Amino acid sequence: MAQDATAERVLAAVEQRREHVNAAIDEDLPMAEPERLYEATRYILEAGGKRLRPTAALLVGEALAEVDADDATDYRSFPALDGDEFDLMRAAVSVEVIQSFTLIHDDIMDEDDLRRGEPAVHRAYDTETAILAGDTLYAKAFELLSDTGADPANTVDAVNRLASACTRICEGQSLDVDFENRDDVTPEEYLEMVELKTAVLYGASAAIPAVLMGADDETVEALYQYGVDSGRAFQIQDDVLDLTVPSEKLGKQRGSDLVEDKETLITLHARQQGVDVDALVSAETPAMVSEAEVDDAVAVLEDAGSIAYAREMAEDLTERSKERLSVLPEGPARDLLADLADYLITRGY
Amino acid sequence: MAQDATAERVLAAVEQRREHVNAAIDEDLPMAEPERLYEATRYILEAGGKRLRPTAALLVGEALAEVDADDATDYRSFPALDGDEFDLMRAAVSVEVIQSFTLIHDDIMDEDDLRRGEPAVHRAYDTETAILAGDTLYAKAFELLSDTGADPANTVDAVNRLASACTRICEGQSLDVDFENRDDVTPEEYLEMVELKTAVLYGASAAIPAVLMGADDETVEALYQYGVDSGRAFQIQDDVLDLTVPSEKLGKQRGSDLVEDKETLITLHARQQGVDVDALVSAETPAMVSEAEVDDAVAVLEDAGSIAYAREMAEDLTERSKERLSVLPEGPARDLLADLADYLITRGY
Known about the structure:
Chain A is mainly α and about 350 residues long.
């Protein structure tokens, strides 16, 4: 299947770069005193994660520099467009560090106990340490991004973009928290929340390397939109997969969002179509719901056109995101960025 | 009294600049959506505060540019040392914004209900909103500092210094939290905590304007040390004042730190001298303690030399901080920076 081949290429590309990224995280975020604080900052970074954002950042750099990466690629002395070298890897790490900070603080706010199958930082440590670990990573990201050796004017632009992305992420998380207390959220509002909370950082991951390398505004803007659109698609598809991927493959009960009354683009669309979403599932916990009950709920949502609505939106966004890549020189890195966008909505978890 | 004259000059200088600073805060942190989030970010900035850090930042700029400030001084188009103009005020605001973010998060961690006499943000709103309001201000500070129009290489340096200061602040707060669970903290460890948690941001407030203006490394380093040393003196003197200023003037019960078992440089020194600090006061809340009981405790601490130890250290640090100012051109702004250092340890609250 073409889908599987895409996933295989993406995972191989991610795998090839992940060791570099993990080594760079060790180097750029060394342990320091107070030990407990720094352990907490490393805790989530070491709990895994695919490193999709840093991979996207590295691929953008490779595409612009027309470098065909192999294991010996020196991301620490990477050529900008004017030939001067800078630390592309450090910029990639800074984005991953921001991602980690937001996960730590989000888990406190959402009272989530688990993250990537492990206790969340505020459970493994405590809330005070989790707040501080997030705040420390926040500072480290700006220390790193302001220390890549890239052209100063480009660095100032990159810092401003990362800071602006952080502001948007906070706005998105704030909307997400507010939505829990509202029963009149529209699909449009939901999409705006998703863009702010998640997609903007994908956008920054793709745009910042281009900024640092001295790419023109059109290229930077196209890469930003590539990231934003594929990030939005990713998040929307997440809601689709929760209903359509078998529980074994999903790694959790299919339909969990419905059982837990989590509003998604699908339920918001269904409500607009007059579906009584709150009556779809009567089970109160994912452990109590039957596959048959989920099947019935999915059938109702399919009849309302809500699942197709979300799936088509994710596909349209992915197509649009891939078109943006035409600003990049042709080559393996550009192809992998396109594959990455596809992978984000086809991954079976 | 010379002390009162100093305070008068400082307060007049602060007053003269505060309106500019408050107007700039309004302009640079405009209200936006989500409204509740942005209200929370403004809440503590509007609750007052003397604006000592932005005042110090503006005074450093004035001293270096040899400008004699009056109400018409345009801090938004301020001359750097090469004559190019940049937004000094925005840099000053960025430091105040970082200060506000740390207060909001500290109050959550310390479970403090009041800040500047008003409910803390996490009480006036809720913990989620307070975490996010802090995170938003954090981002805004870097958006602002990367957008002053100063020379790009200097801006990169300034951003890196602010980020590094934020890392240190987190380390200091982490030590502070850890110390509450330890009974073997040394005065040296306490002093390190104070430097990280509080003084480093004073240092950044004084150094960053010099960096942005293109001052040489020696000047920048001296100004940083001016800020750090006067900030340390300020914090140490705080502990002295809690025991020595009459309750009416202090605005809270004298000796509150002792009653609340708050470890200070004074109590840590006294412990080293063999004083049984825990037995000094038996009252369990500041409302229950008598002035006589505080007097007796103060007498014991005086006999141990602990109050003199702290007071002398604050005075020495202040003298040292003022000596650092010799890197600046002579003039009214330099004199006011010296007055400010004196004021920090003589203010009667």
